[in-house]
Write a structure and sequence with these properties.
The protein contains 15 helices and eleven strands. The chain is of the alpha/beta class. The strands form two sheets. Strands 2-1-3-4-5-6 form a six-stranded parallel beta sheet, with helices on one face. Strands 8-7-9-10-11 form a five-stranded parallel beta sheet, with helices on both faces. The chain starts with a helix and ends with a helix. The model is unreliable at about 30-70 (pLDDT under 50).
Length: about 475
């Protein structure tokens, strides 16, 4: 009897021990998943969807001057990307926003939100990636700002993965490209010439011929002078529409999303299929040159369809407000090539949870090595879209269940296209830094890009 009792006690204790060990490894695995992030074996696209924060675009300070509670250490050993940034004079960056610091002050105090100069609104915002990336880098040295820990500034360029050039080139073009008074050159041209001279004199540039430098040129007309002399650098662009292959290409450069101008639709209150009475929505410039001629052809094909909104529109006169309302009430939003292959209309559609219909054969898409756009967008070759009845019949044929699946996917990926300060895991700035990191050691980038049309059709036809 005693022997039998001892065996039962031993078995019970062994079982308890095994359960305790199993629980320990389960907790350890979950902890590693959320702590390791980019260094884990979990695919980045899935990891980002898990940890993405859906917070406001506004700074996390109630009064605009209170510091944000620090989240924890974020140094070179924790960050994915170590960045050295040139201390260019303010006239290259925040000085273009009217900011003036004290004597010898180059940067605003980004730990005090009330001291950060705001970026111009309207359509200027769509190319504001330069502003958000620079703010994020500065905040990496500010202990009272809670932010994503993907990129961090380092003071020694030899320790850096990349060298960042803080020139607000899109703002310079938008605001300072006209020749004033008796000046022979515009401020924009003068700044570009000074930038080229400055970089060519830096040891950092000479070390690798500029190949490890990151230069922002998101507006298609920005850096028109300097791009030819700095083409070895990694450009952050909207597309390649106005670049030769020798200057800009998918192998070395990064495609960044436009900053959307319509309001973001709350994922928890996004209108459903039945609550979106408009089948197809487009509002913008219709008569364009070059590849944008297709807009005219589609206008005449679709303008008389009863549930299609296809009209001229602009940002002025309440145009952005009308677009916000119209996209949120539509099932499909057209993204058609214009003067360039891309526009902010795609990203307006994404944050409106209006399924994008992309009719732009030469478009480049942000994060396409991570995101399968065919799961939340429809790609239509321009030659097919211009066939009488093709596009409208294709969209009318999308069943409610398939549209709803794409709508749910849009709500999941929309945070990846939000620019905000401070930066948060999985937002646009965070994703751009990760793309820069991947360009350093090139990986296969073209898998989704090459098969976008086939994957789009396969997804639509799947059950």
């Amino acid at each position: 009897m005693t022997s039998m009792y001892e065996k039962r006690v031993f078995s019970s204790r062994l079982l308890s021990c095994l359960i305790a060990i199993s629980m320990f490894f389960l907790i350890l695995s979950c902890s590693l998943l959320f702590r390791v992030g980019d260094n884990s074996l979990v695919p980045r696209s899935i990891y980002n969807l898990i940890v993405v924060d859906r917070g406001s675009l506004e700074p996390e300070s109630d009064s605009g001057s209170k510091p944000v509670k620090a989240a924890g250490p974020c140094g070179p050993n924790q960050a994915v990307l170590k960045v050295f940034m040139y201390d260019l004079p303010p006239e290259f960056h925040f000085g273009l926003l009217g900011w003036t610091g004290s004597a010898n002050q180059i940067w605003p105090n980004v730990g005090n939100f009330s001291e950060i100069p705001s970026y111009p609104g309207g359509l200027n915002l769509q190319h504001s990636v330069e502003y958000w990336l620079t703010l994020d880098l500065l905040s990496s040295l500010t202990p009272n700002v809670r932010r994503s820990c993907t990129a961090v500034l380092v003071h020694n360029s030899t320790q850096a993965d990349v060298v960042f050039v803080p020139f607000f080139s899109s703002l310079s073009y938008n605001r300072h490209s006209k020749i004033e008074g008796t000046e022979g050159k515009s401020t924009n041209d003068i700044l570009q010439e000074r930038l080229v001279e400055y970089l060519n004199g830096q040891d950092e540039w000479k070390r690798f011929g500029g190949k490890d430098h990151v230069i922002m040129a998101h507006h298609p007309n920005s850096m028109l002078i300097a791009r030819w002399k700095l083409g070895s650098a990694m450009f952050v662009l909207a597309d390649f529409g106005r670049y030769s292959d020798e200057i800009a290409n998918i192998d070395k450069d990064v495609i960044a999303p436009y900053r959307h101008v319509v309001r973001t639709v709350d994922a928890n209150n996004s209108p459903s299929f039945e609550e979106r009475p408009t089948l197809v929505y487009f509002q913008g410039a219709i008569y364009r040159k070059d590849g944008g001629v297709i807009r005219q052809e589609l206008y005449y094909l679709l303008k008389d369809e009863k549930d299609v909104h296809f009209t001229f529109g602009s940002a002025g006169g309440g145009g952005i407000r009308k677009a916000s309302t119209g996209m949120a009430a539509s099932k499909f939003c057209l993204n058609i090539a214009g003067d360039t292959p891309s526009s902010n209309r795609l990203f307006d559609a994404i944050v409106s949870h209006c399924v994008p219909v992309i009719i732009s054969d030469e478009i480049e898409l942000p994060y396409e090595d991570l995101l399968d756009y065919s799961k939340f967008s429809i790609f239509v070759p321009a030659s097919d879209a211009c066939k009488n009845g093709y596009l409208i019949n294709l969209l009318r044929g999308v069943k409610r269940e398939k549209w709803t699946e794409m709508w749910e996917n849009l709500k999941q990926i929309a945070p990846h296209f939000e620019y905000q300060y401070p930066t948060r895991p999985g937002d646009a700035v965070d994703m751009i830094w990760k793309m820069v990191s991947r360009k350093i050691d090139p990986l296969h980038y073209r898998a989704h890009r090459k098969n976008r049309y086939n994957m789009s059709q396969q997804f639509l036809n799947s059950r």
